[in-house]
Amino acid sequence: MHVLPYLVAVWIFLVGCYGLATSRNLIHAVGCLAVCQSATYVLLLAVGYRDGATAPVFSDVKPGSRPVVDPVVQALALTDVVVGATVTALLLALVVQVAKRHGTVDPDELSELRG
Amino acid sequence: MNGWILAAALVLAGGVGATLWGVASGPLRRRVIAQNLTTALACPALLLLAQGYDRPSYVDVALVLALLGPVGTLVFARLLADELTGDPPRAWGATWAVAGLGTVVVAILCAVAAPGRATAKLLVTGVLLIGGNVVASRALAGGFGGVRRG
Amino acid sequence: MNRRTTLLTAAELLGWWAALALLWLVFISAVDTLELAVGAAAAAVGALAAHAARRAVTDR
Amino acid sequence: MTDAVIVVALLLVAASATVAVATRDPERQALVLSVLGVVLAVLFTVLQAPDVGLSQLAVGSAVTPLLLLLTVRKVRRRPRRKEPPP
Amino acid sequence: MNRRLRLWLVGVGGAGLAALLVAACLDLPRFGGDRHPYGDRAVRASLSRHTANTISSVNFDQRAFDTLGEMSILFAAVLGCVVLLRQTRDEHRDRPEPAEVARPVRGYALLVLPVALLTGLYVIAHGQLSPGGGFQGGVVAATALHLLYLGADYRALERVRPIGVFEVGDALSAAAYLVTGLAAVLAGTAFLTNTLLPYGTFNTLSSGGTVPLLNAAIGMEVACAVVVLLARFLDQAVEIEQDKGEGEVRAP
């Protein structure tokens, strides 16, 4: 239990990288990149967790009455989730352009077209 | 020992585990149904967690899931309509069973909470969740006819 | 645009506004003046959107 | 008991991430990715980060699948300009 | 480089990376440990400025400059999409066809659209109190609008979505964030410091100084950005068709 969350984050990252490297479709590759991104969120939040603590949001609990988890890593992950989605959209826009120019979204065919 | 969190863990392990298996394999009609049921199961689990951690503000997460989960299923129903019309998914038994689970969870949580705003919020979440999932199921079973381009 | 449609539009907007304002009161945890003002404004935005959406779907 | 639910959520996330990568068809992958989004949101809530869970839900449940499926539709509709060399 | 060689390279590199990462994990502080020096200080700073949601305080007060960076990434990504997905010379627009939607689905979409919009606004407005904030609420509000595409058709969505207004809104809200930061400079302190407004009563809408203002600016920015992004993708997928070109055969 002491390292399980970190190992899960490592697993998600490696699996995503494997998918990226072996992908035969650029849209699938963008999906794999989204999986890789989620590994970072799992790692960040795991680092910030504290046993038996609750969220540092004091709208319904009295400050100081319960231990709280680390808000800094949560803030980092939160902004990146939304910004990461727009970056995914940018990559998908690139895929649409590639499909228009070359008529294929298979990375292997693309490199053959160029070379 | 916190029974609420235990119940949430059971719903997650049994229910969401099963729908994950459903979305991972089989024909497309089974996968879209499993995706819809994931929402319908995760939302009661989130409500149970909010009660288990004794944090009413966590209900907001369940509320947003109850709103946007069925919208996500509608996205699939709309854009995969061509492939689904030939082989429409029909899983009303599972849909109503999961809707029943959601109803039971919301009813129990309303019963233990002191009547007030929090109860009303729980009820709104429950109505949105169950209505949304039934409508999403209906949309999957041929809600979009004759969309060729648009 | 005759008198009847104007009245109907006003009734529709008012109905949506009241329903959404009630929903806002359900969402929030504590009530104060600023909260009510923000809620009324948000409900007005929602009512306008509801009306525009209904019209976009039915009148064409 | 809190540990048990964390372990369950972690295993669900690991499994759905693996499935998302193993599903090669982009339309089916979009379905798995939306499930991954919901499971991640549950994990974040369990790790006491409801803000991040909300963020993940907002993005993962409707917007990302919509973007992916629209891209698939655009790319599919395009007739091939050149046949790939044999 | 052929496929087989590439797979071998990925395998060897991946194994090395995996070994390094696992070694690093074993050296990390134990999961659930009690030592969080930054977190404890952030919570104290947030409480001293009367912000109930510590995460919002970190995002829009203690690390507001960092959020400015995130916002510019978002802005740049949207700009990139708009440029990449514009209509080119060899393309034309076809009018989208109306879709036949089942009655309950259409009714659901019309009913939930305002409710989702209100929820999005609620999540934005209560960003500094309960879980939520501009980033999340903006996406929820923008998604709400697209129920009109799902429950009806693209023509209906185009009628309620003047895209120019959302593009201007995107730029204006980005500017509003900067102006709020610069106002602090004019008041004699550093860029984006939260000393401009009174901190207010703890756990009310007006608490937290400039946090609610920056929060609202980000909410509007994100909502407009998502609407503009999805509009470009919908245009491409539904409306824009390539003209008949070299060697292409289009179905009649």
- Beginning-to-end CA distance, first to last residue of chain A: 50 Å
What amount of the residues of chain A lies in strands?
under 5%
Total number of strands of chain B: 1
Biggest beta sheet summary of chain B: none
Classify the oligomer.
heteropentamer
Uncertain stretches of chain B = none
Q: Could you tell me the CATH topology label of chain A.
A: Helix Hairpins
Outline of chain A, from the CA principal axes? elongated
Class by helix and strand content of chain A? Answer: mainly alpha
- Written as H for each helix and E for each strand, in order along the chain, the element string of chain B is HHHHHHE
Counted by DSSP, the helix tally of chain A is 4
Report Rg of chain A.
19 Å
| Overall pLDDT level of chain B | 90
Judged by helices, strands and strand pairing, the structural class of chain B is mainly alpha
Q: What proportion strand of chain B?
A: under 5%
Helix content of chain B: over 70%
Give structural notes.
The complex is a heteropentamer of chains A (115), B (150), C (60), D (86) and E (252). Chain A is mainly alpha-helical and 115 residues long. Chain A has helices at 4-22, 26-48, 71-102, 107-114. In chain A, α2 (26-48) runs antiparallel to α3 (71-102). Chain D has one domain (2-77). Chain D has helices at residues 2-22, 26-46, 50-77. In chain D, α1 (2-22) runs antiparallel to α2 and α2 (26-46) runs antiparallel to α3. With 252 residues, chain E is mainly α. Chain E has one domain (53-250). Chain E has helices at 3-27, 37-48, 54-62, 64-84, 103-125, 134-145, 147-151, 154-160, 163-186, 211-239, and strands at residues 91-93, 100-101, 240-242. In chain E, α2 crosses α3, α3 crosses α4 and α4 (64-84) packs parallel to α10 (211-239). At the A-D interface, α1, α2, α3 and α4 of A face α1, α2 and α3 of D. β1 (144-145) of chain B pairs antiparallel with β2 (100-101) of chain E.
Task: Write a brief structural summary.
The complex is a heteropentamer of chains A (115), B (150), C (60), D (86) and E (252). Chain B is mainly α.
Q: What's the structural blueprint in terms of helices and strands?
A:
The complex is a heteropentamer of chains A (115), B (150), C (60), D (86) and E (252).
Chain A: H1 4-22, H2 26-48, H3 71-102, H4 107-114
Chain C: H1 3-27, H2 33-58
Chain E: H1 3-27, H2 37-48, H3 54-62, H4 64-84, E1 91-93, E2 100-101, H5 103-125, H6 134-145, H7 147-151, H8 154-160, H9 163-186, H10 211-239, E3 240-242
Antiparallel strand pairs in E: 1-3
Helix pairs in contact in E: 2-3, 3-4, 3-10, 4-9, 4-10, 5-6, 6-10, 9-10
